[in-house]
Amino acid sequence: MKPEEVKKLTEKFYTGETSVDEEQRLKEYFEQETIPEQFSEVKEYFMFVQKEKEQVLDESFDHKLFAAMNEAPSGRNSRKVWVYRLSGIAATVLVLVWLGVEIFQPKQVYGTVADPALAFNETRNALDMVAGKLNQNTIPAKKTLKTFNKSLQKVYELNKWNYSLKKTEKVFQTTGDIVQKANS
User: Fold this and answer.
1) d(CA 127, CA 43)
2) What is the C-alpha to C-alpha distance for residues 135 and 146, in angstroms, rounded to an integer?
3) What are phi and psi of 18, to 5 degrees?
């Protein structure tokens, strides 16, 4: 067989696409003494498979295998199993206890005070501070309100003058009417 053909067949063999006849041709090829160096690993594989096919198990193998399978585990192995099981149970219990403590333990809320008198004093101090800030910020508003009131006072006085002038105008008009009647 040519090396190119052997290479194609080995590639097909490793992908599982060869027929039984092609595999037989490869087997016969690799049974030869001299093959190219590039196929030495493939030859070793085929030789290993052939050697394993020739190996036959004796009659006692099955009996030994079934006896080993049916044999009860030794005390040491069963003890390990129990230790693993118990440690798993203990770990589970510890995790559950820890979760119970974390979930059901009352948490202290930040900023809470247990003493009512202290809470009252803190609240009063906070409200005094707020009142002080409000008073401080209302001073400019008071000044503006005073200025506004002064302006309103002036408007009120002007209004009085206007009212007085209107009455005086009526008097002049009435006097003018009388003078006109007298002149006519």
Assistant:
1) 96
2) 16
3) -85, 155
Quick check: 84 pLDDT over 80?
yes
Torsion, Cα of 25, 30, 31, 36 (10° steps) = 130
Report the alpha-carbon distance of residue 162 to residue 168 in Å, rounded: 10
Q: What percent of the chain has pLDDT over 70?
A: 95
- CA–CA distance, 10 with 82 (Å, rounded to integer): 52
Query: For 96-122, what is the mean pLDDT?
Result: 81
Residue 92 structure tokens: 């589970």
The residue with greater pLDDT, 111 or 40, is 40
Largest distance between two CA atoms of the chain: 167
Alpha-helical segments (H) within 59-115: 60-70, 75-104
Angle at 27 between CA 24 and CA 32, to 5 degrees: 135
pTM above the 0.70 mark? no
Secondary structure class of 72 (helix, strand, coil)? coil
67 phi/psi in degrees, rounded to 5: -65, -40
In this predicted structure, the answer to whether residue 124 has a pLDDT above a threshold of 80 is yes
SS3 53: helix
Cα-to-chain-centroid distance, residue 87:
33
Look-up: residue for tokens 């067989």? 1
Distance CA 78, CA 84 (A): 10
Q: Quick one: how many helices (H) and strands (E) in the chain?
A: 6, 0
